[in-house]
Fold these 2 entries.
Entry 1:
Amino acid sequence: MTKVLVVHGSRHGGTRGIAERIGAVLRTEGLEAVVAPADGRVDVSDADAFVVGSGVYMGNWLKEPLDFLDRNQAALGARPLWLFSSGPLPGSTASKGGQDPLADALGPLEGPGSGGRRKIVELSAATHPRDHRVFPGAFDPADPPRAMSERLVRMLPVSKGLLPPGDFRNWDDIEAWARGIAATLGAPVAMA
Ligand SMILES: Cc1cc2nc3c(=O)[nH]c(=O)nc-3n(C[C@H](O)[C@H](O)[C@H](O)COP(=O)(O)O)c2cc1C
C-alpha cells in the first residue's frame, strides 16, 4: 500500500489539525498515512510520498518543518511531495487581498520581508513539490504565546488588526486538496 508521510510544524495546533485531516482523507481514499510533527525522529526511509506543512509566523515557516525539508532534501526530491502553508487570517491588515496566496502568507519574493519566502523558494527548487497550497489558519488570543517574538507582536497596538481571532480553516478545501493528492498517487477506490 502506498505510504504517505504527512509532516507538520504547528505552534498552536491549527496546522496539526489540517495535517490530521489530510491524513484521515488519505486513509479514507485507501492510502496508508502517517501524520507526525516535524522533529528529528521522523523517519522518511519507507515513505512513498510526502505532505509537509507549517504554520506561518511573521512571514516564515516554523524552524522544525524548515529543518525537516532541508535535512531530507534528497529523499523528498526523489518522491512525490506536496507543501502547504497554514497562515493567513482573513481580514488581517497584513493581507494583500488574496491575489497571490503565497505572497499573502510568506511575503514578497524580493526586498524587505522576503527572507521567509526565499527560504521556501530555495527548498522548493531542491525538492520539486507538486503543489504548495496556502490554507487560511486559526488564531485564538486566549491561547498564550509560545515564543518571545509572538509575545512581542501580540503586544503591539496594531496586532488587533493584524491578528483577527477565529478559526478560518476551510475543511472542504483541505479535504478536496487531500483527495487530489490521493488521486495523483493512484489510490485504489475506497470500499463503501
Ligand atoms: C504572532 C503571529 C504572527 C503571524 N504571522 C503570520 C504571517 O506572517 N503570515 C500568515 O499567513 N499568517 C500569520 N499568522 C497566522 C498563523 O499562521 C495562523 O494563526 C496559523 O493557523 C498558526 O498555525 P499553528 O496553530 O499551527 O501554529 C500569525 C499568527 C500570529 C499569532
Note: Helices lie at 14-28, 63-71, 73-78, 101-106, 115-127, 148-155, 159-162, 171-184.
Entry 2:
Amino acid sequence: MKWQSPIAPGLSWYQATLAERPTYPQLDGSTSADVIVVGGGFTGLQAAYQLAADGVDVVLVDAARFGDGASGRNGGQLGTGQHWWPEEMEHKLGKARSLAFFRMAEDAKSHLLDFARAQKIDIDFTPGQLSVAHKRNMEYTYRHHAEALAERYDYPHLSFMSRQETAERLGSNHYYCGLRDIGTGHIHPLKLLVGTAKAAAKAGARLYEMTKALNIDRVDGRIAVETERGTITADRALIACNGYIQEHLEPKTAAKIMPIRSFIAATTRLPKALKILPGGESVDDSRFVVRYFRKAPTGELLFGGREVYSADDPKNVSKHLHRQITQVYPQLADIDITHAWGGSVGITLPRRPLVDEIMPGVTSIGGFSGHGVMLSNYCGKLYADEIAGRSQDLGLYRDLEIPAFPGGERLRKPLLFLALTWFALRDLI
Ligand SMILES: Cc1cc2nc3c(=O)[nH]c(=O)nc-3n(C[C@H](O)[C@H](O)[C@H](O)COP(=O)(O)OP(=O)(O)OC[C@H]3O[C@@H](n4cnc5c(N)ncnc54)[C@H](O)[C@@H]3O)c2cc1C
C-alpha cells in the first residue's frame, strides 16, 4: 500500500506493514457541532473519541490523512515521565509539581495500553527501553537517576547498566553505560492511530480528511472554522496541529511550537545470529540530536537519528542514517535500507507541552517535544475529561509558562536553527 504524506517526506515502514488504512471523506458543505477539532493526530483523534463516547457532537478535520503528521510516523517509544527527568523538573518546579507530572505520565502510559486493549487495537506493544550514554562521564548521573526514581518517585522499574551489560543488551559496544526500564516499551504508532480513528468514528465522531482549516474566529458568540468547502460552527474548538501549525491559522500557537524534522530508516530483517537487541527493547541515547532505535517484532531495525532545523529535507536520508547505523553497529555495513521517512516534531522553548486558551472556547494543545506518543493521547483524553467535568488535570500543563520563540515570525526559524546547530555540535565533543 503506497501513500505519500503530503506534509512529511518519504514512505514509512509503518504504512507498508499496515493491513488497512481506511480513508475518510472530505468535508463538503457547512455544518455545526458542539466541538470542532482541528488536527487528526493522536491528540485530536483521542479527544474526538472521548468526546463522542461522552455523547458530545464532535467534528474533526485534518488537512491531510490521519497519521500523516507525527503520530503515524514516529519512533513508537513510550518512554517514562516527561521530556525532562523528574529531578531536573524538581529544580525548576519544586518536588510536588514534579511528582504530579510524573504521575500524570504514568497515567498516560496506562491509558494508552488500556485504551488499545479495550478497543482491540493490536499495537505490537513490546516491553523494555534502554537509555544509553554516548559519553564516558555520565555514569554518576545515570546511577543517580535510577535511585531517585526508585526512592522518591516510587518507580522501581529502572536499573543502571554497566558498560558490559549495555553492550550485551544492545549488541554494540558503542555506548558507555545506560539505564534499563522494564516499566515501558514501544509500539507500532500507525496501528494505534488508525485504530483510534476507527474507534472515534464508531463512537459517533464525524471525521474528515483532506480538509484544511483556513481560519478560526468567533462569530455571534460561537466559533467558526472555515475550510475550503464549508464552515463549521461550534461552541468549542481544539487546535491539535502540533508541529504543523500554520501562522495564518493561529499565530499565538505558531509562535510557541516550532517544527523540527526528524528522520527514521528501516532495514531488512536482521539476522538473529548478530544478537542485536536480543531482549527486544527500544533505545534512545544521550546525544542532543538523539538517536533512537528498536527492532520491530518482525526483526527489522528502525533507526531514527537525523534532525534538520531548516524547512528543507535532506537530499539523502537513507545514506545519512545508514552511516549512523554503522557507527553503532559496524556489523551492519552491508544491510539494506528499505524505507526512509521523516516528520515534524513540535517543540517548545522549555520542552514542555503547550496547553493554551487562544480565545474563549478555543484551546490549543501540542509541543510535546519528542515525547508525545503517550502524552498527546492522554492530553486528548484530558481535554474531553475537562469538558465532561471529570478531571482538571490538563490544568497542570496550562499553568506552565511557555514563552514564544524569540525573533518574531521572520527570525524565529533562523535563530532556532543557529541555536540547535550549536547544541548539536556539542555532541561531537
Ligand atoms: C520522526 C519522529 C519520531 C518521533 N519519535 C517519538 C517517539 O519515539 N516517542 C515519542 O513519545 N514521541 C515521538 N515523536 C513525537 C510524537 O510523534 C508527537 O509528539 C505526537 O505524535 C504528536 O501528536 P499530535 O496529534 O499532537 O500531532 P500530529 O500527529 O503531528 O498531528 C497534527 C495534525 O494536524 C494536522 N493539521 C495541521 N494544520 C492543519 C489545518 N490547518 N487544518 C487541519 N489539519 C491540520 C496535520 O495534517 C496533522 O495530521 C516523534 C515525532 C517524529 C516526527
Note: The chain has a mean pLDDT of 94.
